[in-house]
Amino acid sequence: MNTDVAQIAWGALQGLASSTVFVLVLFIGFCVIFGFTKTMKTAGGRAKVVKSLDERISHQPMAYLPPSAPRGPADQLKSPELVDRAARK
User: Fold this and answer.
1) Cβ neighbourhood burial of 32 (10 Å; 0-12, 13-18, 19+)
2) Does the pLDDT of residue 81 top 60, yes or no?
3) pLDDT higher for 85 or 11?
4) What is the distance between the alpha carbons of residues 84 and 56, in angstroms, rounded to a whole number?
5) How far apart are CA 6 and CA 25, in angstroms?
6) Per residue in 35-72, pLDDT tens?
């Protein structure tokens, strides 16, 4: 009787592990395959992948700002409160 319980537990563990691995492989494979389509260079709104409505309308690829570009008049990291707080430290 003890071996029957062990066999049932081992079979249940194998079934759970194999179904978990199958679902993970399916999910990760789907995300990888269809995730690559987002990184394709678009043809100015004429490609299957459209990254924005502006790109679709203007037929020009999006021009993204570099990370070092200023983001406008309000810089949250240089707000008066934070500058004053850093000066007091």
Assistant:
1) exposed
2) yes
3) 11
4) 45
5) 28
6) 776 666 666 556 666 667 777 788 777 777 787 877 66
CB atoms within 10 A of CB 55: 20
Coil, strand or helix: which one is 42?
coil
Could you give the 3-state DSSP secondary structure of residue 15?
helix
* Sequential DSSP letters for 53-80: HHHHHH-S---PPPTTS---S--GGG-H
Tokens (6 digits) for 24: 């993970």
Identity of residue 79 = S
The one-character DSSP state at 47 is S
Reading the block at residue 74, the tokens are: 């309000």
Number of helices followed by number of strands (H, E) in the chain: 3, 0
The reported pTM is 0.43
> What is d(CA 65, CA 9) in angstroms, rounded to the nearest whole number?
57
